[in-house]
Here is the input.
Amino acid sequence: MENKKMVRFSLIHSFGVLAYIALVVTFMQNAEKIFGQEDKPIGAIVFLLLFVMSATIVGGLVLAKPVMLYIDGDKKSAVKMFIYTVGWLFLWFLITIFGVLMWR
Here is the structure.
């Protein structure tokens, strides 16, 4: 896989992770409005299902393409793709941290 294409894919995948995290945070902030304050097992079930779904979705976005490249025998590209995706995620992390500090 060519380098430009890999960087673009990793950026798109990392942005997908960022968007998914934003959706989960929005859901979690509004969960009390949806489910109320009742202490029932359904809240724990929903939370654990969300946790497992999140691990699956984010794992797919971060690892699916590198694993496919690795299986196809393109080991260098697989490692590069993974590093680029993690690098983009780290950049999103820094932007978020600096954004929070700036708006205080």
In short: Helices lie at 3-35, 41-71, 75-102.
